[in-house]
Amino acid sequence: MGIPIPDSKLGMWLFLGTEIMFFTAFIGSYIVLRLGSPGWPVSVEDTHIVITAGAINTLVLIVSSFFVVLAHDAMAKRNFARARLWLVGTLSLAFVFLGIKAFEYSGKFSHDILPGHVAETPRQSAEKVDRELRGVVASRLAVYSYTKAFEIPEGDLKKIAAAVSSLNTPTKEYTEPLAAFQEDYSASYAAAEGDARA
User: Fold this and answer.
1) pLDDT of residue 78
2) 26 and 62 fall within a common domain
3) Could you tell me which residues are beta bridge partners of residue 114?
4) Which of 7, 106, 112 lies closest to 53, judged by CA?
5) 116, 142, 171 — which closes off a domain?
């Protein structure tokens, strides 16, 4: 029989173990999704996430946890004045954490990003579709053309682009991404053809 462990300590270790498993699964899923999607948005204009604020908040949480451990140690040594000092430091960092969170959430609220609702203008939607087309579809078509899985003659692609451009759309924001995609595809197609001939 091993050393007896108090129920409170065992419960805390079980709690920490479940938290580690949860965050490992959560962060692992994020990494797999992020690395598997070349069109993943990363700019602040798209994500509205300020990485610096998140990094500072993480540091604040780590330091405040350390202050709590120091306060606990001071109480165990019956040094209550020092324990109060560490707890005041912890409370101060809690207010810093809340201030940074208020800054982050005010940015999201100003863009109408609310729980269960992510606002998106038609231009943002078109830009996201354009990014996906440019980042994924163009590269895949170039690979397919290179491997001769199928071929799209460049003239046909120009006809498709011209037909879509002639549609009665309210602004150019829908036709310009297609023209840019066609230019990118033509360049990728020409590069793949050059590699195939070499």
Assistant:
1) 94
2) no
3) 117
4) 106
5) 116
Of how many residues is the chain composed?
Answer: 198
Cβ pair 84, 72 in contact under 8 A: no
Give the phi and the psi of residue 114 in degrees, each rounded to 5.
Answer: -120, 165
Question: pTM value?
Answer: 0.51
Closest among 180, 192, 177, 195 to 141, alpha carbons compared:
192
d(CA 149, CA 158): 20
In-domain check, residue 42: no
More confidently predicted of 69 and 4: 69
Of all helices (H) and strands (E), which one includes residue 97? helix 80-110
The predicted-structure confidence for 73-106, as pLDDT tens digits, reads as follows: 999 999 999 999 999 999 999 999 999 999 988 8
CA distance 61 to 74: 20
Asked whether residue 41 is domain-assigned, the answer is no
Q: Please give the structure tokens belonging to residue 131.
A: 């990014």
Q: Mean pLDDT of all residues in the chain? A: 77
Q: Is 58 inside a domain boundary?
A: yes
* 113 strand-pairing partners: 118
**Percent of the chain residues topping a pLDDT of 70:** 63
Closest to 129 (Cα-Cα) out of 10, 29, 41, 57: 41
| pLDDT at site 169 | 47
Its domain, for residue 7, covers: 1-34
